[in-house]
Amino acid sequence: MTLRTAPAGPARTRRTVDPIDRARRIRGRRRMRAADAMVALVWTSVAGAVALWLAYGGLNTVGDLGSALTAAGIVTGLVGTDLILVMLVLAARIPAIDRVVGQDTAMAFHRQLGKPALYLILAHGALLTVGYAAADGSNVVAETVSLFQGPDMALAYLGLGLLVAVVVTSVVAVRRRFSFEAWHLIHLLSYAAALVALPHQLSAAGVLAEGTVQRVYWIAMYVLAFGSIAVFRLAVPALRSARHSIRVAGVEQVAPGVVSIHLIGRELDRLQTAGGQYAIWRFWTGATWWHAHPISFSAVPTASSARLTVRDLGSGSAAISRVHPGTRVSIEGPYGVFTEAHRVAPKLAVVAAGIGITPIRSMLEHSALRPGEATVLLRASDPSQSYLWNEVGTLRSMQGNAVFSMIGPRPPGLVTWMSAEALAQGVTIATVFPELLASDLYVCGPPSWADLVIRDARAAGLPEAQIHVERFDR
Amino acid sequence: MRARALALSILSSVAVLTVGWQLGTQGQTSTAPDAAAPTTAGTATTAPITTTTPSGGSTPTPTPTDGGASAAAPTSDGVSGTFTGTSVQTRFGPVQVQITVANGSITDVTALQLTDKDQRSVSISNRAAPVLRQEVLAAQSANVQGVSGATYTSDGYLSSLQSALDQDGL
Predict the structure, then answer these.
(1) pTM for the complete prediction?
(2) Which of A160-169, A208-217, A293-302, B61-70 shows the lowest per-residue confidence on average (mean pLDDT)?
(3) Which helix (H) or strand (E) is A406 found in, with range?
(4) What residues of chain B lie within 8 A of the CB of A205, using their CB?
(5) How far is B115 from chain A (nearest CA, A)?
């Protein structure tokens, strides 16, 4: 007879965590921390602007109504200018910011700050004029006239005018009336606005008087903001374009209105492009040099070649499809967080519509996927839109992974991202991706369509960190 | 905004504001005595005769035109000459005035230096100086109201004036 000890129930198996998933989670947490630190840095700089005034002894200057208005005017000016400098930093395409939150998110924040900054600067001018008038016992008009006397102050008023022009043209309803180029040209005036405001800050502001720490800090903030623009938007792209000397090798028609542009250049692998990223391209022909286009890589660049795929929508992108081989191309980028490096979950769910296939294709190409890890859904309103679909199925990383298609128009009168046919068959985001909640969802397509996919994913309970989206119609 | 980002923002902002506030109050206590000192009549800074000023830069050296008068201080009547007050430090720059006395009465007040730390201070000084001069000539003392909206300039102006008056024994 053999004796066995009494059973204690099934042995508890420790769930082994895949090292790749673990590394992914750690990277994700690190990015979150960095993003939080960046947000905190922005608000600390606002507090810093107020602290400049406190350190100057600003509280002691407040006595009557006039001096209180003057003090409020000084603080609004400091905070408003600080926000404008933050906006410049956000628009500078600093690699650290792009890697952590993505340039899209940074620019969304940039846009949110625009109106508050303008209102603060307007309040600055109004409060100081009223405050000074109250202190001098004069009226607002006389005070404005006397303020205009100083050359620095006249420049500051000019800066205020420019700022109003910049923000007004950027309000959505007004922006639509301008071409992108006209709007962008006006928008560049914001640099001028921030610069012409500097003399009056340094000469008229007691807070920033000569020989103070405040003055050093303030100038350092200006140098930081304008320096990052100069380095990351001008110097780095210029050097990169010169170093890689990129030219058009050929233009290949993929479908009506859709072309793949093949590029050649030196050491293109050293751009360290991750699949799913885009760059901002400028084609140096007479018809296209004045217009820079953000276009995704549709394949991961090799040492000597790269490929972009683009659909002509605007007048500018139609001209691109006619560029001749040998045309010089300059590059800003690569940018973007629509990459494998930003995954946080063990599985991968992908939805691409129309020309939105381009970053999806290069992202999948760049991913090291295990069989069964990924599920891809390709969406088109008709068969003519199935650009690059054949390539997706043959990617090495897609071996053992499912690719589904959904072709057909959306049903009229229904707010959905799916085709009428799929909807009738009872297809949902959960039936396409049974492991959705354990997946990173990558969505790329037209903005309104992509928003509907995300709506369904959120409704299914997918956490924000697992949603990755690239909205474009190019 | 995520909770951690919010907490971090609040913490570091409060820290920065506190440091700023501390610096502000410290700076104030260190400058206050400078500005207050000369107002107390007969302090050590007002030497009996002539070279009174710890002045800086372009200030002309005080030249009493009638040295005998200030030496024979006891009778206040009949004192004549020009007397330079001390240079009073304010947060917007030093203030110093010179008075002209004829037979014991103030006939003129000249501002040698006025608050000029920034453009705003200059414009305040330019507005306040003539008003203060008129008030002093009318009152024949430093005991006048001052100009509202020009508190620092007024205080400095009248302190410097008082130190000049102390010299000639008015």
Answers:
(1) 0.79
(2) B61-70
(3) strand A402-407
(4) 118
(5) 11
